[in-house]
Amino acid sequence: QVQLVESGGGLVQPGGSQRLSCASSGRIDRFYAMGWYRQAPGKQRELVATITSGGTTNYADSVKGRFTISRDNAKNTVYLQIDSLKPEDTAVYYCNASGSGYVWWGQGTQVTVST
User: Which regions of 15-108 does DSSP assign to beta strands (E)?
Assistant: First the structure.
């Protein structure tokens, strides 16, 4: 059974940066894709960024240019680098992995952008 554990969240000032990590109990190079989603209070969960096993990335329009998804296969970890943080980025960020007909989710990490 695959387990995903997010870390790196916390309180950050507007304009600041944050790097989130998602550690997988399985080899991430065996997943079809991994991604980051987020859910703000009172809103639906939305896709933020994805990366395939081949390294292809995709971003939501709202974060493109500010967020960067990357992976370290040796550490079985996917990262989300967040720059130029805005208050509207405040949300619980979830790691996602898909492959072999299955989908896995982490428990999420809270990112709060505030003065």
Answer: 18-24, 33-39, 46-52, 57-59, 67-72, 77-82, 91-99, 102-105
Task: Give 32's pLDDT tier (boundaries 50, 70, 90).
Answer: very high
CA distances for 1 relative to 50, 57, 78, angstroms? 21, 25, 18
Query: Taking a C-beta distance cutoff of 8 angstroms, is the pair 71, 35 a contact?
Result: no
Pairing mode of beta strands 109-113, 10-12? parallel
Per this entry, what is the length of the chain?
115
Q: Which residues of 30-67 are buried (b: 16+ CB within 10 A; e: fewer)?
A: ebebbbbbbeeeeeeeeebbbbebeeeeebeeebeeeb
Nearest to 96 by CA among 51, 44, 63: 51
Q: pLDDT category, 1, cuts 50, 70, 90?
A: confident
As a whole number of angstroms, the longest Cα–Cα distance in the chain is 43
